[in-house]
Amino acid sequence: MTATLSTLYRYPVKSMHGQTLPHSDISPLGLPDDRAWMLADADGRFITGRELPQLVTLHATPDDTGLTLRSADGSQCRAERAEFTHKLPVQVWKDGFAAWRGAAEADAWLSAQLGRPVHLIHTGDTQRRVRRYPDVPLSFADGYPLLLIGEASRLQLSEWVGRDMAMARFRPNLVVSGAEAFAEDGWTRIRIGEVTFRLVKPCERCVFTTLDPETGEKSADQEPLRTLAKRRKGEGGVLFGQNVIAENAGRLEPGMAVEVLETA
Questions:
Q1: Per-residue pLDDT tens digits for 210-250
Q2: Is the residue at 19 inside a domain?
Q3: Which positions fall inside the MOSC domain (predicted)?
Q4: Euclidean distance between CA atoms 176 and 5, whole angstroms
């Protein structure tokens, strides 16, 4: 059976609802506008769905000039790229770097939606870099530009849990079908189309995976984190998916073959 790229996801605003893409350019920075925005407090500290679970119910759709935000009740707000003119020191985990704010209407709309003051922040021409690979640029993603998960791995986890665990819980960028469950754990380099990728580190999972990706409600039984802790425990935590870096630029679309170039 030939492994193929089955789905492309991006998340324009960190922790908000994801989008499936029919095709996309890709580069070492990742997918265009993937986690190019995030929410922060007045001090520039990042805010995610771990802290505000209702974030996952908000949708964000980028275009050439800006970003349209939409809530579950259909209300909308617009933020233009040209509004992000005020430089702000921001913090994502241990990384401190400069980003941009200034979309006042979006700040007010989001603050009302979430019930606390927040700012919408844009990466601009990001100064951030992957810690282990300082030549690789990074948006507001947790630690790496891309995350890859095998569809068979999700199905196996769902079987262990005893109910379906939607792929959206795990927020991948690249979903691969046609490989055995957890085959991606043994891959170190692959090619999709004209783009080669390095699989550099297993992804350590957190409480965010216990949130329903449609409602933001937390699983009462702490699944799938509880099962991952039993079945997929590594030295650094529970593991599911592989962090990935693109080695060159190109174009991707679902259906492309995944060629395994190197294994561990």
A1: 999 999 999 999 999 999 999 999 888 899 999 999 999 99
A2: yes
A3: 112-261
A4: 5
pTM: 0.95
Report the C-alpha gap between 5 and 258 in whole angstroms.
6
Predicted confidence (pLDDT) per residue in 34-76, tens digit: 999 999 999 999 999 999 999 999 999 999 999 999 998 899 9
Residue 200 has which token pair? 């550099």
Domain that holds residue 56: 37-129
Cα–Cα distance, 71 to 77 (Å, whole number): 9
DSSP letters spanning 66-122: EEEEE-TTS-EEEEEGGG--EEEEEEETTEEEEEEE--HHHHHHHHHHHTS--EEEE
Whether 134 is in a domain gets the answer: no
Name residues whose C-beta falls within 8 Å of residue 13's C-beta, 6 or more positions apart in sequence.
Answer: 35, 37, 38, 39, 58, 60, 67, 69, 120
How far apart (Å, rounded) are the C-alpha atoms in residues 173 and 164? Answer: 20
The reply to whether omega before 32 is within 30° of 0 (cis) is: no
Residue 135, in any domain of the structure = no
Could you tell me which of 88, 58, 203, 229 has the C-alpha nearest to residue 144?
A: 203
Domains held by the chain: number: 2
Tokens representing 170 are: 């795990």
Residues 157 and 250 in one domain: yes
Q: Six-digit token pair at 190?
A: 């692959």
